[in-house]
Specification:
Blueprint: E1 12-20, E2 23-31, E3 36-40, H1 47-55, E4 62-67, E5 70-74, E6 79-80, E7 88-91, H2 103-113, H3 118-131, H4 147-160, E8 165-169, H5 177-194, E9 198-201, E10 213-218, E11 221-225
Parallel strand pairs: 3-9, 3-10, 7-8, 8-9
Antiparallel strand pairs: 1-2, 1-4, 4-5, 5-6, 10-11
Helix pairs in contact: 2-3, 2-4, 3-4
């Protein structure tokens, strides 16, 4: 497995308040290096908004988000580090592939956007496609892939960047039962080996087996942590 780009940098510490119109998501928790936290809760509870805040897609209204000693958000100081500078990988529930690019080009895109050479990015992308059972689909355009294949390409794209934090929004929902376990094992292995914090959003009770701890969100507030 490709090594993470840098040594473990410490826990992810979230203590933020995010406002989307009249809806407010306020949460305080931390995720240790190598730990997978399952973020559970009903639809509309704020799970995806919270992931997007950690990823930097939404700026919090108050509080802070830190990775070890590095601050990503601190509204009181006017600090908001843009997503591309966070080394945080987010796997969206909607996959968000570029339909005109091949599976391999999509898997390599995150590295290319960071300035990595085409050859290196493609090699890394292909490695992860192979690990996720998609080497034979590498040359297919994304719009020719099934929903489950698209999801695996999105996961490959995230892991190819060797992130310091991994965020996953329903990453296994589109997968057939036959491949779900193997994909889940690849994700777990990367998180453990690299020693990075990971947050998983899922409505599937079976995914609780993946997590070291469960945090439940209701109406924008943390109600339990296990």
């Amino acid at each position: 497995m490709s090594a993470a780009a840098s040594a473990t940098v410490g826990p992810l510490a979230v203590a933020s308040t995010t406002r989307r119109g009249t809806f407010e998501v306020s949460a305080e928790f931390s995720v240790e290096p190598g730990e997978i936290v399952l973020l559970a809760g009903p639809n509309g509870s704020g799970k995806t908004s919270l992931l997007h805040t950690v990823a930097g897609l939404i700026a919090p209204a108050a509080g802070s988000i830190r990775l070890g000693t590095t601050a990503f958000d601190d509204p009181a100081r006017g600090l908001h580090v843009p997503p591309e500078d966070r080394r945080i990988a987010l796997v969206h529930q909607q996959h968000l592939l570029f339909p005109h690019l091949s599976a391999l080009e999509n898997a390599a895109f995150g590295l290319r956007a960071r300035g990595v050479s085409k050859a290196t990015a493609r090699a890394q992308g292909l490695e992860w496609l192979e690990r996720l059972g998609l080497a034979d689909r590498a040359s297919l355009r994304a719009d020719r892939l099934s929903g489950g294949q698209s999801q695996r390409v999105a996961i490959a794209r995230a892991l190819a960047t060797s992130p310091q934090v991994l965020l996953l929004d329903e990453p296994l929902a589109a997968l057939d039962v036959a491949v779900r376990t193997s994909v889940r094992d690849v994700i777990i292995s990367a998180v453990r080996e690299w020693g990075i914090p990971a947050i998983l959003v899922s409505h599937d009770p079976a995914e609780a087996e993946v997590a070291d701890r469960i945090i439940r969100l209701e109406a924008g507030r943390v109600v339990t942590g296990e």
